Amino acid sequence: MGARKVSSAVVAAFDIDGTLTTRDCVVPFLRSFVGTRALMKGFVGRPLQSFGGLLRRDRHALKTIALSPLAGRDADELDAAGERFAREIIPGWLRADTVARLKQHLLADHRVVLVSASLSPYVHPLARQLGAEAALCCELESIDGRLTGRLEGPNCRGPEKLRRLREWLGDSFDATELWAYGDSSGDDEMLRAAEHPTKITRTSRIEERIA
Fold it and tell me: How many domains does the chain have?
């Protein structure tokens, strides 16, 4: 962590799964849309890729397999399902302490952005519900209104999170005082770039008030 910057703005960047929520959201969302059988069929039909992904802990490979049952589905229907998921399911999984911290940033007139490897159909409506200015996440590829079952661009994890954040802030990045919140190794680059990094764990609780 370097010397404190002279800031023209303060930005608070929050991961979602395990940071703002108590659990992963990707698999439950996909299961709610395509069904458990179709989701499992994607993995059973690719045994070598599935086993290799688990062995290497390759989240991108596993996500690629998990998204495959979406191929051919209507993109608008997925977006509608994402709206419902964000409104009806995710609120029950939110962590009170990290959401309280997010609200403190909003009250202090800080810019809030969600930076997550979760999926755009529910991340964007969740960002609106929480009052975040933007959501940088995994977008899903579609052609002529039909999903391809693939990501549009890289998985928003690790170095990609920091790249997306830099791109979003543009020339103001170096003049920004950054607060960052994350729970996994996929957040490490973003946390290292922040003046105020907070690593979230299952047992930790952060204070509501910004120090």
Answer: 1
pLDDT above 80 (res 146): yes
pLDDT tens for 16-49 read 999 999 999 999 999 999 998 878 766 555 544 5
Q: Tokens 């395990």 appear where?
A: 18
Q: At what angle do helices 47-56 and 59-67 cross, to 10 degrees?
A: 150
Structural domain boundaries, residue 54: 9-199
